[in-house]
């Protein structure tokens, strides 16, 4: 990074200017409770709710929809269908409600209910630099969200954030470095995705056996997720949340804990046992994991417990079936008619159709799928570790690169 060091020494030898965010950005609307002088001009937008966007969505379109949430699925429309909702530019945005996150886009777009900003002078503040800067301070932004239900940001607090504005050449060099990290991580993620897709192909081929169709509620006991959570503890019984459900297994690398007696008294849920399956009905919907032997845990919010009726369905067969194309297509169909990606309705879960062949066929399919999955995990072990390492490296350098000595008067 000698080039960057040289630029900083040459262009910012006495430190960098630190200014309030409002003084270098233009936002999409006038905000209540924000002083008029903090918003001398605006860049007005029209917004689509996720359900409203269904009416103009076009899988063959080339105009992306910028959602408020953190989702992997890309959604598009066309210029004709977008009409006067269509916008074009280079923007940075945060959601008006929900989980705080920072997004960047350059080009044509339509948007959900985001709070959208852009640099008011790109010769002084680069928009991509602003994106990286705000992404690095998402915890601070999160602290400005308030509300008992869906939380919304205090825009007075957001606009009052003080940000460093180094020389534009320094900003561009930082963007170049961080873009390179991002590109490499994207390439590794694409390779991992291709391998997972290959596994899915073999899974669906094996699951396409003759069998009887059952509703999920007829082949297992379903215990809905708790809607409240006891106080987190430093130790106790681990709470399995949606991000702990990975490729049919329970990832224990990041766990939260509760007191078991308090959990059962307050939440009133049974404790999962060996071969129970946990199913996420929060985005990403449909993540599953099977409870291993001698592992005590409890359900987190948005995680449903499925206890297979073993006279009808072999637990590991159900685990693989829930990851198959037949179930995925049913989930996507429900999503496409209006269910938000953040909450898969328990009634729809109960009516998922599972094709169940004879028990000996279930066991044979499960054994083959376990071998394929084991091979895939062995083959992919290096990739997830490399992606994780690259992400940690990116976050470290982002923090270092965006830390500046403030210029004193």
Give a quick precis of the structure.
With 409 residues, this protein is of the alpha+beta class. It is 37% helix and 20% strand.
Task: Describe the model.
This protein is an alpha+beta fold. It contains 13 helices and 21 strands. The two termini are 28 Å apart.
Strand pairing plus helix content: what structural class?
alpha+beta
What share of the residues lie within helices?
Answer: 25-40%
The major pleated sheet works out as:
6 strands, mixed
How big a fraction of the residues is strand?
Answer: 15-25%
Across the major sheet, the strand order is 2-7-5-6-3-4
Strand elements, count: 21
Uncertain residue ranges: 336-341
From the N-terminal CA to the C-terminal CA, the straight-line distance is 28 Å
How are the SSEs ordered, and which strands pair?
Layout: H1 2-11, E1 17-20, E2 25-27, H2 50-53, E3 63-66, E4 76-77, H3 79-82, E5 87-95, E6 103-111, E7 114-119, H4 127-135, H5 138-142, E8 145-146, E9 152-153, H6 155-159, E10 162-165, H7 168-207, E11 212-215, E12 220-223, E13 237-240, E14 245-246, E15 249-250, E16 256-258, H8 260-266, E17 277-280, E18 288-290, E19 298-299, E20 303-308, H9 315-322, H10 325-336, H11 346-350, E21 353-356, H12 359-380, H13 382-401
Keywords:
409 residues; alpha+beta; 6-stranded mixed sheet; 4-stranded antiparallel sheet; 13 helices; 20% strand; elongated
């Amino acid at each position: 990074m000698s080039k960057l060091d040289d630029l900083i020494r040459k262009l910012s030898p006495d430190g960098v200017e630190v200014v309030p965010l409002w003084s270098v950005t233009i936002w999409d609307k006038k905000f209540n409770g924000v002083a008029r002088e903090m918003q001398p001009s605006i860049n007005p937008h029209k917004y689509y709710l996720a359900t409203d966007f269904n009416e103009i969505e076009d899988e063959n379109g080339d105009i992306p929809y910028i959602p408020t949430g953190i989702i992997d699925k890309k959604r598009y429309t066309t210029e004709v269908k977008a009409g006067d909702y269509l916008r074009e530019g280079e923007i940075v945005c945060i959601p008006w409600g929900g989980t705080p996150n920072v997004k960047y886009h350059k080009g044509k777009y339509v948007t959900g209910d985001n709070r959208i900003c852009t640099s008011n002078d790109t010769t002084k503040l680069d928009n991509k630099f602003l994106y990286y800067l705000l992404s690095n301070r998402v915890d601070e932004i999160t602290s400005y969200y308030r509300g008992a239900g869906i939380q919304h940001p205090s825009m007075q607090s957001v606009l009052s954030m003080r940000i460093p504005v180094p020389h534009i050449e320094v900003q561009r060099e930082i963007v170049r470095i961080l873009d390179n990290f991002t590109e490499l991580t994207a390439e590794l993620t694409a390779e991992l995705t291709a391998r997972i897709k290959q596994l899915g192909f073999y899974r669906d081929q094996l699951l396409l056996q003759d069998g009887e169709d059952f509703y999920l509620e007829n082949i297992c006991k379903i215990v809905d997720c708790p809607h409240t959570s006891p106080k987190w503890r430093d130790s106790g019984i681990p709470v399995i949340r949606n991000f702990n459900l990975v490729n049919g297994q329970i990832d224990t690398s990041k766990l939260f804990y509760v007191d078991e007696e308090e959990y059962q008294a307050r939440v009133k849920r049974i404790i999962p046992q060996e071969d129970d399956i946990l199913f996420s009905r929060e985005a990403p919907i449909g993540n599953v994991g099977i409870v291993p032997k001698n592992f005590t845990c409890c359900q987190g919010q948005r995680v449903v417990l499925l206890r297979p009726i073993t006279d009808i369905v072999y637990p590991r067969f159900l685990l693989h079936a829930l990851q198959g194309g037949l179930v995925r297509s049913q989930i996507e169909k429900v999503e496409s008619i209006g269910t938000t990606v953040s909450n898969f309705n328990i009634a729809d879960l109960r009516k998922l159709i599972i094709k169940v062949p004879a028990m000996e066929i279930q066991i044979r399919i499960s054994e083959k799928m376990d071998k394929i999955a084991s091979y895939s995990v062995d083959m992919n072990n290096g990739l997830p570790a490399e992606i994780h390492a690259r992400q940690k490296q990116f976050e470290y350098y982002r923090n270092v690169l965006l830390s500046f000595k403030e210029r004193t008067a």
